[in-house]
Design goal:
It holds the Pfam family CHASE4. The protein has 532 residues and is α+β, with helices and mostly antiparallel strands. 55% of the residues lie in helices and 18% in strands. It contains 16 helices and 15 strands. It has a six-stranded antiparallel sheet, with helices on both faces. It has a five-stranded mixed sheet with strand order 12-13-11-14-15, sandwiched between helices. A four-stranded antiparallel sheet has the order 7-10-9-8. The C terminus is likely disordered.
């Protein structure tokens, strides 16, 4: 049963479509894991990178602004005169705590042509107090570290004209430029450094400009400036390390972003995957239903139709009316089956009927006789048989020839068939010119009447037989036997006694009817054993 089911089209279709569904789902999983999700992560990283670069651009703009301001101060003729000692009122006119606070400066440092300190002004980040000095002593001691770093930068790159990040707490933007006249004529007279702290106020400006929360921290790290991304729940942290001067420390620029957009996209994609899987499953179910209705069910009916070969089979008529391949196949099978039935009928006819006369042959007669004898013995009803022989048929053939003999046999057989049909008994050709009949539920007396009807019908033919010693036309002799006679209780015994009665009819001059009796059997036996 399992093997039969595994070979059915329904199972094979289901297995094939199930395999397709499994492959499709696996493909979706693989596509999601190795293509879609990485693409979403890449897109999210690109967004994070873009946002972080926005902060970097704001930082670069701040550096460029400070550098532009430092250049304006450095190539101002008043500054040129000031560093040469020719403008004593320069500091009082241009420097104040209010100016530093408004410009966001922490320190301005002027150096002479030899790199020495010429003038310092700034706001102490620890106390918030404004100081001006000509050296890094007393109240300007807090500037000492920055001044030494600036002097080292001058020695490394006297050209200056740049903006750099200095490590500190908070970190600093430092812009520097050589001091020249406004038309940049004359010799170099020194250098100007401007310092802007990247404190909370500066970060607030950056956040207002970019709309992103920003933090800065100084770290001892040698990592490259690639973006580092860390994900924690719904928040993503992005960090980039920026080089500072000197290069023994780095500045970590960090922001945090909400992953709502990414998670929404991810959730949407998951819903799409789920709906895609459901849609595929629905399509496969619909395909199976269509296959069941259009192909599998008709094929099942066609299979039963071919197995049972019956036009009355439920659904067979609908198959025959179909215009598709199944209908063509059903009609072809029906045509073939009817042809086979016809051939079988012809074969049965040939095997059970005499081809010359069309009457049943000896084979069919013996089969029927066995059945009728069994019924008669079981029911107790009478059964009578006849053996019929054409008188002197050999003389007829010798005189008229075999073709005429065949015509004679056909006419005699048709006449006897008509009588048998009219009186309801079975007759067959069981020899060359010999015929046999069985009469169920018929006594010997009734059989004699029917035998006389047979003989009379043949006489009515008046078929010429000029060489017959009996008559000038064809006649028959008939022997009758009944089942209940001793020795005639079997089909063979019944036919043997009928043959003996036929022999008695021939011995009596032919063209007559004899009924078997024991005394008749003794007379026949004596005539067989009497010397000629």
């Amino acid at each position: 049963m399992v093997q039969h089911y595994s070979r059915s089209l329904r199972f094979r279709f289901l297995a094939a479509l199930g395999g397709v569904l499994l492959i499709a789902l696996m493909s979706l999983v693989v596509l999601s894991r190795w293509v879609i999700f990485p693409a979403l992560h890449k897109e999210e990283r690109a967004v994070v990178t873009q946002e972080l670069k926005k902060i970097e651009r704001a930082l670069q703009i701040s550096q460029q602004n400070l550098l532009a301001q430092a250049r304006d101060w450095a190539i101002w003729d008043d500054t040129y005169e000031f560093v040469q000692g020719n403008y004593p009122g320069y500091t009082d006119t241009n420097f104040s705590q209010q100016m530093f606070e408004e410009m966001g400066y922490q320190l301005m440092a002027f150096f002479n042509a030899e790199g020495g300190v010429h003038f310092l002004a700034g706001i102490n980040p620890a106390t918030g107090r404004y100081h001006t000095c000509y050296s890094t002593e007393r109240e300007c001691r807090w500037m000492a570290g920055l001044v030494r770093t600036m002097q080292a930068s001058i020695k490394e790159d006297p050209e200056q004209g740049k903006s750099e990040l200095y490590a500190g707490s908070p970190p600093l933007i430092v812009a520097s430029n050589p001091i020249f006249r406004t038309d940049e004529s004359g010799p170099l007279q020194g250098w100007l450094f401007q310092v802007r702290p990247m404190d909370n106020a500066w970060l607030a400006l950056i956040e207002d400009y970019t709309g992103l929360e920003t933090t800065l921290s100084v770290v001892n790290s040698s990592d490259s400036n690639d973006i580092a991304i860390t994900i924690s729940g719904n928040t993503i942290f992005a960090q980039r390390y920026l080089s500072t001067y000197p290069l023994n420390e780095q500045l970590a620029l960090e922001t945090q972003l909400n992953r709502t957009s990414y998670l929404a996209s991810l959730e949407t994609f998951r819903y799409v995957l789920l709906w895609t899987a459901c849609l595929m499953l629905l399509v496969i179910v619909l395909v199976l239903l269509l296959l069941e209705r259009i192909i599998l069910k008709p094929l099942k009916i066609l299979t039963r139709f071919t197995q049972q070969a019956s036009d009355d089979l439920e659904g067979a008529h609908s198959l025959l009316r179909r215009g598709d391949e199944i209908g063509i196949l059903a009609r072809a099978f029906q045509k073939q089956f009817k042809r086979q039935q016809q051939l079988n009928a012809e074969l049965i006819e040939l095997s059970t009927h005499d081809p010359l006369t069309g009457l049943p042959n000896r084979r069919l007669f013996d089969q029927r006789l066995q059945e009728v004898v069994n019924i008669a013995l079981a029911s107790g009803q009478p059964l009578t048989v006849m053996m019929i022989d054409i008188d002197h048929f050999k003389l007829f053939n010798d005189h008229y020839g075999h073709p005429e003999g065949d015509v004679c046999l056909q006419r005699v057989a048709q006449a006897m068939h008509n009588v048998a049909s009219a009186h309801g008994f079975f007759i067959a050709r069981t020899g060359g010119e010999e015929f046999s009949a069985m009469l169920p539920a018929t006594s010997a007396t009734q059989a004699v009447e029917k035998s006389q009807a047979l003989s009379h019908a043949i006489d009515q033919l008046q078929h010429p037989h000029q060489v017959s010693p009996v008559a000038s036309y064809v006649t028959v002799s008939i022997g009758i036997s009944q089942l209940d006679i001793e020795g005639a209780m079997t089909p063979s015994g019944l036919m043997t006694t009928a043959d003996q009665a036929l022999y008695a009819a021939k011995a009596a001059g032919r063209h007559c009817v004899k009924v078997y009796t024991p005394s008749l059997a003794n007379a026949v036996f004596s005539s067989h054993n009497t010397p000629p």
